[in-house]
Amino acid sequence: MKNTGSESNDINYFEHVFRNSISPEQLFDALSLAIKKGICDGDLYKILLANPALSPDEIIMFTEKLSKEFNDCSYDLFLWTGYLFQMRDHDLSLIDNSLYYYQKAFMIDPENHQPLLSALSLYNYEIALPVNDDVLRLVNTGLIKAKQKSPVYKALSKHYRKTGREELARKFAILSENAARKEDQ
User: Fold this and answer.
1) Which residues, 6 or more positions from 22, have their beta carbon under 8 angstroms from its beta carbon?
2) SS3 27
3) Which of 77, 81, 97, 114 could make an S-S bridge to 85, C-beta 3.0–4.6 Å?
């Protein structure tokens, strides 16, 4: 569907506000107006969610609001929100939030391997965090449903190599090669 001139102007306005505003109140008002106008543009809302003026609680609130209003964008918004929390790795308390949103993305599209790869990238090799077990649990259970398994097997092979578990690293390297051959057919 082609944007009318008015829709295009609206999107340009919202993009400008979402990108440049340093006021959470102004961002909330602009978001409310965009929702009221029915603008369903995941890329536009990614700009909003990445605005550094937003606190983690505001990011969560906006993500949840957007996912309820625009169900079709939920997968991308959940994956993006997980990524945003992951990039704030200086605050280890946000890793749980990141995993939570990767899980939500996976639940929407369990055949997609990307949330599993994103979750595995949360594993902390320096500190034995409780979330490490949750990461592996999601990846291992998610593998059953993932349509394209080879990238996940390959990532697990690298993971086990980093943890010094060479036998498991070799096992997953072989699984990756076998899955890749099947997926290429």
Assistant:
1) 53
2) helix
3) 97
